Amino acid sequence: MNYEEIKKLVKLLKDEDLAVLSVSDNDTHIHIEQKDGGAVAGESTPAAAQPEEKSSGLIEITAGQIGTFYNQKDENSEETFVSEGDKISKGNQIGFIEAMKVFNDVKSDVSGTIEEIVVSNGDAVEFGDVLIRVRPEEA
C-alpha cells in the first residue's frame, strides 16, 4: 500500500464520518481512527467505553469500535470481568473487544451498579452498540 492509497483511506474516513477504518492487503495492515475530530493513521487505541445517559436514569456503556466483545477473563475460565449487580468504579475494566487479533480493554467512564449486561461473551459488536447499562452512584 503506498502513500497515495493511505491518503485516500484517510479522506474516506473523514468524508463518510467513520469512527474506525481498518484495511489489510498481502502484508500491510492500516488502522485509522477518528480522534478529537481528526484522523490519526496507524495508531491503535483502546476501545473506550462511551457512557450515554438514558431517561431511565441508567447510563449505557457502548462499544468504541467494531469487533468481538468478551466479558470472560480468558477462554478457558468462567471468571468474568463484571456481572449484573456488581458495583464498579470509573476506570474499571468491564471486558475487552477483539478486532483483527488486537485486544482492546473496555473500561467504564462511570461509577455505579451494573443493572444489565446487554451483550453476551463472544458477541459481535459495532461502534456504538450498548454493552452494559449502569445505574450511576448518587452524589
UniProtKB/TrEMBL annotation:
Task: For this UniProt record, give its keywords in alphabetical order, as a comma-separated list.
Answer: Biotin
Q: Which Gene3D superfamilies did the record assign?
A: 2.40.50.100
Domain Lipoyl-binding positions: 56-135
Q: What is this protein called?
A: Biotin carboxyl carrier protein
* UniProt region (Disordered), positions on chain: 36-55
Return the InterPro entries for the record. Biotin_Carboxyl_Carrier/Decarb, Biotin_lipoyl, Single_hybrid_motif
